[in-house]
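Section 5.1 Outputs to date
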Amino acid sequence: MEFDSVIRGRRSIRAYTNEAVPEGLIREILDAARWAPSWRNTQAWNVWVLTGEALQRYRDEFRAAVERDDPAALDLPATAEWPQACSARTAALMKSRAATLDAAGEPTDPAAALARMADLFGAPCLLVFGFDDCLAEAYASFDSGSFVQNVCLAAYDRGLGTCIVATVIRYPDLLRRLLPGAEGKRFVVSVTLGSPVAESPANTFARSRADLDELVTWVS
């Protein structure tokens, strides 16, 4: 694809087919994504690829924790209050998504949304990103974000969908118990990966971006 088409066409996918993603294709995506920039070329990120039985085990245990209403305990603190402009953009997105799901007869309440996330939107692959606990979270998170963005763009360029999700790593101790080499790591985000259900309302609702001049200050 043309570069601008990849950037503008990528969107968060919340409904997947059950078609497995070949390991070779996942490797190809990660191999391209690892060329992301990082502070002094430290490349201080880790990624765990969950598929098959391992993914189903995590899905089952995550769903059980949700049903028990276990308290979330993200490794990285979430923002409690956002500036008004940011909150307004979120509200507009949620309104657009709810209207599209309502029109299709799909539930839009918070419990239903959490249940869809607990099912990982049906994705056949989950990527979990983290870094060593000794690292300053600001730098490590920024660098990990560059890697994650490359993954999402590389996946879209190859006809696959992704969704960057923090809720799916809300029980980090569960991940540390299930994932090899996860002790001493902090988890920053996860990414679902798979083939999108093209006509799903969860994948087709309208979304927008702020006007450029809302975000940019020109100084000359």
